[in-house]
């Protein structure tokens, strides 16, 4: 087993060891029962402390990839090699836990504070603008209440989307714009059309857990690329490309879920260079675009859709009940995805698309998001200060959006934080949900909109004291 461990990358040594062993097991070189180097030998070979090796081996054992034999050492588990057949590394129970957590977001007792929730508070939304648009559509466009939308989507809405993507520097035309039922359907169409069981994709670590579940459901192998405050780590990505041939790399480039980080231009250029050299495509999820106060270059801006499929949507801002998203890509791919959309869902909601188009046409949406951008940036900056008061560490300070990725001092497993929060009537999700392999994590996602609540402050203080 050949491991590459580089202390200068900023990626924790434990993470590098875990990833290196997983990569080796996923290759054809590892056999059932193959012996791993001893803790002492691995530490000596790489001139590092034994502690990260001990922690890495413990994680691999807990994930069922490695067996620990008392007095003998560590060996590749028989069950670990089934991961090479396409289902990835996670225990199947992880997918069940994730689906339960997603359902729980809608069924928590009314008194629970959803500190990790992914939604903008209701009082922040432009409910008046939304209801005016609904009244306008029901009075003047009755067809949208009754009939199917066209497969490509509402024509006026597609024109607005085209204007929006051009504002961030993406040169496209109408034939490259497809309206979807939220960004989730856009991801699903891509997975259905471009991937098959056994294919490998790169995802962010940490990243969007619903995407991880979708990929596993299709039998796709996930390889996590460590995420930094500037985006996916290009050095780690390049190392992983030595052993893996991903068809796609899914990334959330602006105000990333869960870290709140935004892709920097130097990192974007390096990642695109790797995509061109190794012949894979990025799926750029830009669902939080409208929360960004000052636009930055996207991968799609720099690449102009040659190696990038671009996704956006309105569900995070307009209304979660109106599932409206969009996908922008090269014309050939759009034509293929229309076929998949028609066969799986016929069309989107004509009504939802018409209401969204009306909000955009009447100027209500522009004014609303301008207010939302300022508000989320102020609240997020305040949440960073609040967490700092109680000794919490924040992964980065986002320039807006809803999310902070944070950890409390001295707590290595965020499940302890989840249990602690529940006693105070607070709903949290453990950090391992956001990791593609379900590895233990000290970090949790915090919705900054609720960080100033008295219950949140009391929880932050209690966890900080621990």
Would you spell out the secondary-structure blueprint of this structure?
Blueprint: H1 13-26, H2 39-46, H3 50-62, E1 66-69, E2 73-76, H4 92-107, E3 113-114, H5 127-140, H6 143-146, H7 155-167, E4 177-180, H8 182-194, E5 200-205, H9 209-217, E6 221-228, E7 231-232, H10 234-240, E8 248-251, H11 265-278, E9 281-285, H12 299-303, E10 308-313, E11 325-328, H13 331-345, H14 350-361, H15 364-389, E12 393-394, E13 403-407, H16 415-422, E14 426-427, E15 444-447, H17 454-465
Parallel strand pairs: 3-14, 5-6, 5-8, 8-9, 9-10
Antiparallel strand pairs: 1-2, 4-11, 6-7, 10-11, 12-13, 13-15
Organism: Cupriavidus pauculus
Family: In the C-terminal section; belongs to the class-I pyridoxal-phosphate-dependent aminotransferase family.
GO molecular function: DNA binding; DNA-binding transcription factor activity; pyridoxal phosphate binding; transaminase activity
Fill in the keyword field for this structure.
Aspartate Aminotransferase, domain 1; 466 residues; Aspartate Aminotransferase, domain 2; alpha/beta; 13% strand; 3-stranded antiparallel β-sheet; single chain; 17 helices; globular; 8-stranded mixed β-sheet; Arc Repressor Mutant, subunit A
